[in-house]
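Exercise 3.2. Students should predict the tertiary structure of the chain below and write it as structure tokens, then compare their answer with the key that follows.

Predict this chain's 3D structure.
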Amino acid sequence: MVGDIVALLEALSITTPCFVVGSALGAGIAAAFAARHPKRVSRLVVQSLVTRSNPATRPHMEARANEVERTGMRVQAKASLDRSYPEVLRQPRDRFENYRARWMANDPQSFSAINRMLLNMEIDQELSHITAKTLVIGCEYDEMRPPAMVKSMATLIPGAVFVEALSGHFMHAQTPALFTQMVMPFLLEK
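Answer key:
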């Protein structure tokens, strides 16, 4: 996925350093990109940073990938959304329902492949190579990546600023106005 970012920037002839923003697994991919291509990133925002899988949940992740391949996304929707999109954040309800519909529209094969990729992901050691000015956001309602866990990862990024937000694992979708309020000033500050 990091290679895909490089290929996209090259295809678009973007050679100047850019802003890179990611949530959850997207934050891990953004961090890996910033670590491996430091001259291409001027500012980095990572929210609910995922850098590796939890060894205790690996059997569950493999079983989930297998089940999704066999039966599709619908069977896993409730359990996954209960973990990643807590009830306290499900208002307005139409925002949650739209997210749920998008989640269930995932391609089962791609979803399973990404779950398996995460089983082998381990980028903690790379975080020290990030040179971009970095904002790290931990979210109070994120049971998969609690703020204390995210804060400890922020300490691995030189000069990173850590903040907490009243949001969840997918802040950009769950509380988009709050996400914008926190991220835009950081990206645009001189």
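Discussion points: Residues 139 and 146 are 7 Å apart (CA to CA). Residues 2-52+122-188 form a domain with the Rossmann fold fold (CATH 3.40.50.1820).
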